[in-house]
Amino acid sequence: MDVSGSTNQDLKFETDSALRFIRALLSDRNPEDQVALYAFDDLVTQVHNYTHNIASLETMMRQIHGSAGTSLYDAIWLASRDLEMREGRKALVLVSDGGETTSKIDSHKALEAAQLADAVIYPVIVMPITNDAGRNIGGEHALQFMAEGTGGRTFLLSEGPQLDRAFSAIIAELRTEYLLGYYPHDVPLTKERFHKLELRLKSPELRASARNGYYGESAANSGPAAEPITLKPDSRKKR
User: 77: domain range?
Assistant: First the structure.
């Protein structure tokens, strides 16, 4: 959840809607399903580790607050790195106004981390301004780019009640799954580690949600390593 200064006026109804989403996602479902909560302003904080305990998540979510800048890409990168070693189907639901001001990681590195984790990104963008003028169009486009690259969907919202509908749509997708796979045959190595894929459907009435490629062998390594960043520890968490 984006808790930067630009989201303060919307934080309460975003929190209420996110809690309804968590209750619907975890109630009477497989106890192995788990949710972790991250909050980000200029720093990224893991507010709650992975859990199936709805009450514990609600308690911590009611306490989150923030200010200052927005480290949007850092949040995606860190959450994806945490997801990478976990088993099962993985999704990253991002509630933000799309602003980005203080990340050390760029959007391409954030997307790469999500793809390596095999996580689907669902950006839920709450737009305080509906006109193009004054909105962070660049941030919105970056999130749409990352959603498409992982097989997710982007939700652009202009009012609070639309949040519940967006979360309901995400739950419907998470409860539906299909598997597509193939074995590449005699594919020459390229300079890029990322190999693009395109999925086409015969029926124009259908829409496929699938990642647009995968990471494999390459003839050369891509670019220098990103500058390391650290996760801000949650001072409220008991150890």
Answer: 5-178
